[in-house]
């Protein structure tokens, strides 16, 4: 099948790209491996809440239903994305996973599990969450200890009885730790003490103030942007603080090693656990992309605001692609528009 633009990934980045391609009247197809739009959200842990309110979680052209200051849960987010795709009648080919992509004579050739595509331009919109990043020390841990990555965590019922270690104190790790702490003792391991910020100030969501102060518009190379990137992401809300105060969660240092059931921390202390949840992020996985010159030493795609070294190949939806909000639902549209404008110029 031939198309002008093939968008790989039907999440928020791919849908935003589809919106601007539609406005431009450019022929395109979006392919995605999921069976439904929004499944990447539906398949995450049951209690997930976005830390951005609905008013700051909107794609271009369609409001998020409900009160703007409410934090949407994962199913509301998934349903919004599905409604978005339907509302703009975006040409989606679901259950379609890319196996390989190469280029010859100025055209991209894409092989999938269903059919082959030929395109003049390709937008990679698969986001930053590809392959679970689990430390090598996990292999040293006894099989009696239940280990799961945060991507596979759904709810506390998955866990065995006993103390639980959550490794990684980002927003997902702390949300999961708080939830589990209502059922069993939790230890939260991190190389830094989490920076806690209030969700509301003066009756307004903190993102309202971020917006007013220009923080949401901070670009990757600006003074403010560089400062933000140099520090760990903040944790929004004080639920973690409350659970620590109630002795339901104990902060422990960075996890550096393991032996059988014991986890060894950076201060030399060690402790045994029944469950370990690795909230340790993800690694890029572009093994299907047969254009090695666009991949950097970290395995990520080289780009300058979504424009890669390969003519006609673009990327959307990466953290700090241009701004602090580039990988968030409410910020991805700006980058999608920029990339589509580049395609228009090359048209």
Weakly predicted, low-confidence segments: none
Total tally of structural domains: 2
Average pLDDT level: 95
Tally of DSSP β-strands: 21
From the spread of the alpha carbons, the general shape counts as globular
Count, helices: 8
CATH domain fold name of the largest domain: FAD/NAD(P)-binding domain
Structural Rg: 21 Å
Element order, helices and strands? Answer: EHEHHEEEEEEEHEEEEHHEHEEEEEEEH
- Tell me the β content: 15-25%
Q: Provide the structure class.
A: alpha/beta
Helix percent band: 10-25%
* CATH architecture group name of the largest domain: 3-Layer(bba) Sandwich
**CATH-assigned homologous superfamily of the largest domain:** FAD/NAD(P)-binding domain
Overview of the molecule:
This protein is α/β, with parallel strands linked by helices and about 350 residues long. The protein folds into two domains: about 1-130 and about 285-345, FAD/NAD(P)-binding domain, CATH 3.50.50; about 135-195 and about 230-280, FAD/NAD(P)-binding domain (3-Layer(bba) Sandwich), CATH 3.50.50.60. Helices cover about 20% and strands about 25% of the residues. It has helices at about 10-25, 40, 75-85, 170-180, 205-215, 225-230, 240-245, 330-345, and strands at about 1-10, 30, 90-95, 100-105, 105-110, 115-125, 130, 145-150, 165, 185-190, 195, 200, 205, 235, 250, 255-260, 260-265, 270, 275-280, 280-285, 315. The strands form six sheets. Strands 1, 2, 3, 4, 5, 6 and 21 form a seven-stranded mixed β-sheet that branches. A five-stranded parallel β-sheet has the order 8-19-9-10-15. Strands 16-17-18 form a three-stranded antiparallel β-sheet, with no helix packed on it. About 40% of the residues are buried.
């Amino acid at each position: 099948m031939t198309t002008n633009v093939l968008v790989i990934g039907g999440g928020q980045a791919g849908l935003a790209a589809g919106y601007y391609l539609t406005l431009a009247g450019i022929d395109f197809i979006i392919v995605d491996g999921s069976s439904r739009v929004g499944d990447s959200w539906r398949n995450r842990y049951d209690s997930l809440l976005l830390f951005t309110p609905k008013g700051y979680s909107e794609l271009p052209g369609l409001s998020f239903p409900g009160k703007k200051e409410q934090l949407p849960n994962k199913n509301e987010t998934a349903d919004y994305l599905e409604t978005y795709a339907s509302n703009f009648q975006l040409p989606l080919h679901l259950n379609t996973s890319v196996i390989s992509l190469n280029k010859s004579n100025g055209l991209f050739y894409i092989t999938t599990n269903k059919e082959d595509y030929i395109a003049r331009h390709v937008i990679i919109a698969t986001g930053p969450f590809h392959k679970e990043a689990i430390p090598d020390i996990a292999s040293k841990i006894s099989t009696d200890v239940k280990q799961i990555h945060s991507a596979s965590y759904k709810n506390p019922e998955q866990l065995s009885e006993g103390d639980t270690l959550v490794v990684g104190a980002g927003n997902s790790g702390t949300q999961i730790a708080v939830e589990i702490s209502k059922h069993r003792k939790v230890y939260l391991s991190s190389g830094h003490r989490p920076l806690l910020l209030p969700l509301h100030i003066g009756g307004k969501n903190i993102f309202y103030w971020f917006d007013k102060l220009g923080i949401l518009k901070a670009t990757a190379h600006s003074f403010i942007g560089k400062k933000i990137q140099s520090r760990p992401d903040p944790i929004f809300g004080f639920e973690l603080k409350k659970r620590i105060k109630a002795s339901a969660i104990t902060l422990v240092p960075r996890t550096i090693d393991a032996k059988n059931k014991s986890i060894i921390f950076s201060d030399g202390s060690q402790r045994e656990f029944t469950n370990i949840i690795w909230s340790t992020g993800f690694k890029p996985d572009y093994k299907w992309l047969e254009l090695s010159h666009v991949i950097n030493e970290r395995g990520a795609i080289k780009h300058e605001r979504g424009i890669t070294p390969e003519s006609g190949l673009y990327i959307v939806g990466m953290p700090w692609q241009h701004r602090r909000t580039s990988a968030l639902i409410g910020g991805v549209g700006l980058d999608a528009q920029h990339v589509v404008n580049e395609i228009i110029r090359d048209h």
